[in-house]
Amino acid sequence: MELRIGHLYADLMSIYGDRGNVLCLAQRARWRGIACTVTPLGLGDALLPEAHDLLFMGGGQDREQRLVAEDFQTAKGQPLREAAEAGVAILAICGGYQLMGHYYRDADGTELPGVGLFDAYTIPGQGPRLIGNVVVQSSVPGLEDRTLVGFENHGGRTHLQGDTRPLGRVVVGGGNNGQDGFEGAVCRNAFGTYLHGSCLPKNPWLADLLIRRALERRYGPVDLAPLDDTLEEEAHRAAVNRARETR
Amino acid sequence: MRLLLAIWAAKLVAFACRALGRGGGTSLPGLVALRIHPRADSCLAARLPRGCVVITGTNGKTTTAKMVATVLRTAELRVVRNVSGANLRRGAVATLVGATGPLGRLDADIGLFELDEATIPEMVRALRPRIVAVTNLFRDQLDRYGELDTTAKRMNQAFRESLQREQTLVLNADDPLVAELAEGSPARVVRFGIDAPQAAGDADSHAADTKTCPICGGDYDYAARHFAHIGHFACPKCGHGRVAPDVRVSELKLCGSEALELAVEGETRIEVRVAAGGIYNAYNVAAAVALCQALGITRDRLVEGLEAFRPAFGRVESLEFPDGKRSLLLLAKNPTGMNQVIRLLRDAGGVRHVVIGLNDNIADGRDVSWIWDADFEQLVGVPESVVVTGIRAWDMAVRLKYAGFAPEQVTVEPDPRAALQVALDRSAPGETVHVVPTYTVLLDVRGKLEREGIAPPFWEEL
Q1: What is the pLDDT of residues B195-254, one digit of tens each?
Q2: What's the CA gap between A24 and A52, in Å, rounded?
Q3: To probe the interface with A, which of B222, B396, B402 has the most A CB atoms within 10 Å?
Q4: Fewer Cβ atoms within 10 A, N terminus or C terminus of chain B?
Q5: Does A196 participate in catalysis according to the annotation?
Q6: Which domain holds residue B94?
């Protein structure tokens, strides 16, 4: 088996250590004997919907988001929608997540059009930036008994509509908008979240769910061999405790 | 009168802090003074016969400040300077109060303040410094400040609105974000940089925070990349690029992890050997030379002072243990700093046991995501073992696991002093344990070593 990861705007959208998610996915595949390739997809590069099993996009500053939003309009938006439609696994974090909705209006009032994978939109917040450790009770099918941890840092407030479900319910922290108690978005195999940390290394169950869904599209039902996650679980626990102490 | 009251109250608090063994009392007295007299710092700074100098930026503030302080003292000036941990307004005020006698007389010629980037707009107005130097801008504690571009924008606004023609900006010519800070400011600008081919390094571009031209959005091209986004940058689309520096390192030789030999050309050419390793310290030397030149220090005093420099608290600081073992403290608090330390560990040779400490207190930055932007993959195969420590020790253990360390190479010991002991016990006499802590892990482990009589107290170091 082979896991083909496409890393969208790896050099532009990577300000809070989000590349750790790609390192995590690649290692967890390789440790199980699954070959893994990571292809950077920069501004102007063509995106072929069939060429990737999993697409990842991290967060960035407003300046970079503007460049990316333009590239979505002129190049990658349509193939990205086709990939999502075909069931390719997608994970987008923070600034990347915001651009996966219908639009993102930034603090200056500039409205950036999004890809529309999620029935969601993002507008500037009334209050201060939502910054700090986050604990989420997952509502992702198969992970209902799990918590997800990470660190959020965003001014925009994301609101979900229609069929788009949240990743889970906020236990500690702000989440999508600091009001409705939801964090993240899920639509078919596309996942969006505000969790940095990096997110996946401390939530290995979410990493494995993404790997499985990515592979199943091409290979049918997949059983992933269990890994020793003692350190990851300790790191997860430490982050949960820290969230309770600091917010 | 109100100022005197503020001074006395602050002095009383400082005395109480020391008496209670609560460290040097480096910030609380400042808070008290400001509460009584909201412009205590402006009034005190105005009494300094030679004015004051501000050093800011993400990395290198403390080392640059210590270099400048050593030079100024060699030139027989009395310097009042804040300690590195007290780099907000209250710290500066506490420092000024500490140097003031009971009748309000300041026992100093010149003030030297290293200040947090976020305090600059406020402090440029409060202190009216003769010189403001900016070492570099990297992502660090974004959880406190939001985005890096915003920090730069606020600094530029302060330089445009609050600086006058007779004030000087000393800026890193090789950092694209810093180079832009003088835009529209009436202040005189002195730029420093490196023009030595030896400085070129690995392109650790995922630690680079400024990748696109602020004018047209094009990707920068680098004729030479020194580290992260620091180097000889140019935008191929609009032509915007590096301005040739006024003070430049023209020759550079790395001497192990603890020294540099360099030639610096400014108003005159100097050749010096400085007790500070790593390319990043060549920038600190260049910044110190540019600053001292702007202050009118003579060439001989400059060279003498730089050669007398000893590393600052926790910045490649060597500590001797009674059993003949040694530890080297290498503060690393952001991806670029960490990558420089990793490069230093690779170059040093013979590194067997390393301690890496990660805390997430406010002074460290609450967000530990940054460890995923540092190239720990480059550390695999260098030390035999790593002991990870601090509040987020497990996050660091996970980072090392994914970087490719074998499970038996990594030990988790959350208490920093105990972690150091684990590494020391594994070492042979005469060997060095390299300790790489974030800021509050450094304070923790160093505090314990002070009480054991191994490290000198840091507020006496000034």
Answers
A1: 998 887 765 555 666 677 877 777 888 988 888 889 999 988 888 899 999 999 999 998
A2: 17
A3: B402
A4: N
A5: yes
A6: 2-308
- B324 and B438 share one domain: yes
Q: Exposure string (b/e) for B301-339, b if CB count within 10 Å is 16 or more?
A: bbbebbeebebbbbbbbebebeeebbbbbbbbbbbbbbb
Average pLDDT, chain B: 90
Q: What is the ipTM of this complex?
A: 0.97
Strand partners, A168: A138, A183
Same domain, B400 and B290: no
Pairwise CB contact (< 8 Å): B373 & A19: yes
Query: What CATH number is associated with residue B371?
Result: 3.90.190.20
B373 and B296 in a common domain = no
Strands (DSSP E) along B142-280, which ranges? Answer: 168-172, 188-194, 221-227, 230-234, 247-255, 259-265, 269-274
Please identify, among B308, B336, B368, the residue that sits at the C-terminal boundary of a domain: B308
With contacts defined as CB-CB under 8 Å, which chain B residues touch A24? 402
CA A82 to CA B133: how far, in whole Å?
51
Domain A2-246: CATH superfamily, name plus number: Class I glutamine amidotransferase (GATase) domain (3.40.50.880)
Q: Which of A94-108, A177-191, B207-221 has the lowest mean pLDDT?
A: B207-221
- Residue B206: per-residue pLDDT: 56
| Residue B362 neighbours by CB distance under 10 Å | 13
pLDDT score at B141: 52
Q: In terms of domains, do B125 and B267 share one?
A: yes
Same structural domain, B336 and B430: yes
DSSP reduced 3-state for A34: coil
Distance separating alpha carbons of residues B111 and A175, to the nearest angstrom: 45
d(CA B15, CA B25): 8
**Distance in angstroms (rounded) separating the CA atoms of residues B287 and B268:** 15
Residues of A in contact with B412 (CB under 8 A): 231, 234
Tens-digit pLDDT profile for residues B340-399: 899 889 888 889 999 999 999 988 989 999 999 999 999 999 999 999 999 999 999 999
